[in-house]
Amino acid sequence: MKKKCFIWCIGLMAAVAAILSSCGQQKVEYKVTASGDSAEAGIVTVLDYSINVYKDLESNSCGNCVDQPVHLYAGADSEEVTEAIGDVVERADDLWEVVSCEGNTVVLREKEAGTVDSIGMLSAPEGITLTGTVSGRDVPVISGKQQEAEVEFPKNPQRLAAVYGPSYELLTMLGAEDKIVVRADVQTADFPWAEKVFSRINKIPVLNNVHTSVNFEELMKYEPEIVYTFPRENELTQLKKAGVAVLSAETEETLEGVKNQVRNYAATLGKDAEERAEEYCRYFDEKLSWIKERTDKIDEKERPDVYYAGVDILTTYGKHSDIIQVIESAGGNPVSCELNAGNRTQIDYEQLMAWNPDIIFIDHGGMNDGKTAEELKKEIQSKSVYKSLNAVKNQQVYASPSGVFYWDMGIQKILLIMNMAKILHPDEFEDLDMEEEIMIFYEKFFDYSLTREDAEKILNRENP
């Protein structure tokens, strides 16, 4: 009897060991503690998810829209910040669960041992300091640029997922629209021209709310071979675990980044796509050189101060964004060129008034169910607080054109530079026919023939 019991115990221990082995080591726990009494406007980042901290209710154009269920306002204390972190993880994360959220500390734990390879960067706006402590299984904490999942790209991919905003127009330009099996909701939500120009876009299944997070299980139903997506570490990790190749977006800090992105996409698709990419890059260089040959000769005193707004009036682009080069190439002086920030960074009303730009461009309006660019234009022109701005006094507020996608990101950026140059320096670019340039671009890269009336509507942000 003792021998049988001993054998049974040995068997039980082996089974337990096997289970433990299959489950991997301990689960990772991540304790995040906030200190400080009053957050300024900015962004809280935890596990590669972002929580907007708005200056006030007025500056929050999205409100409680579906893409932004969790947000804060300036003045939020440490307990409010940790509560928001717990909330956003519960809503958006498939890898982590909230163990506890008490006072100024929230404890997170991976749901399944072995699924987390690293922990994304942790940051908060001035006034609040976040510290993270890892326990359980040891994993690296990423403090800088996001890492891509390291899975080899297939040689002849047939099933592509266009999750990142500009990825649909990019893949179409590279001749791969027929290989897209799933796409993002944002690619048609505010772009009726995309529905007109892209032949398959309304026939392709849609992933919703991709700006917040991607539903991994829903995405995998379409069996993608390559996913073109956002640089969110947790989602990249999931794709890596599933053996799916991924190309994630990077912030474009210079105009060279536009061409680099096109070439990176093409490299995943093959020789034909790479030839198309080089055709685009030659076009981009030729047009940019033509513009700069003229604007480089413009005296500094003749360059107007330009402010570029996106999402809302008090959101702009800093020195780590290629919008600075866009404005400079077009012959303008970017007022935010010293702002230590990248894309879509919040400023306060006082900063905008101090810059007092001569010309204001608005883009990305309508994103996240916020106000459209046209509504933002009317707002800045009608509100008394903005009436002293030179751009408003002189009626120099413009809504940037928008065709199949935003012009300030993706491959249509060269059209943005041309149009901006014509607005800033109409005499120097009197011979620039923007309607004609739009028609040529769409024919060359989207294989779609626009009428002059179509091009004029795109230029004026009008629907088909």
Automatic annotation (TrEMBL):
Keyword annotations: Signal
Pfam family, one: Peripla_BP_2
Signal peptide: 1-24
Superkingdom of origin: Bacteria
Fe/B12 periplasmic-binding domain: residues covered: 159-428
Gene3D superfamilies per record: Nitrogenase molybdenum iron protein domain
InterPro entries: ABC_Transporter_SBP, ABC_transptr_periplasmic_BD
Family per similarity comment: Belongs to the bacterial solute-binding protein 8 family.
Name under which the protein is recorded: ABC transporter substrate-binding protein
